[in-house]
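**User:** My hope is that you can spare some time for a protein that puzzles me. I have put the entry right below:
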Amino acid sequence: MAKLITDACSTDGFKFITESVKGKDKPPMYILEGVYAQAEVVNGNQRSYPYELLKGEIERFDKEMI
């Protein structure tokens, strides 16, 4: 059985913007600004990711998810 991996983070420092789509039956679009990943820095889960690994994963995320 697959396991869901989650990561807890603080929303401190994020700016939330909600844009509505008028006349459409679509949910609102959310725009986030802020740091969502840092390489070579210990995060809240005591993990540190090498720059090259994180760079590749962020590029893949941008290509597949955005």
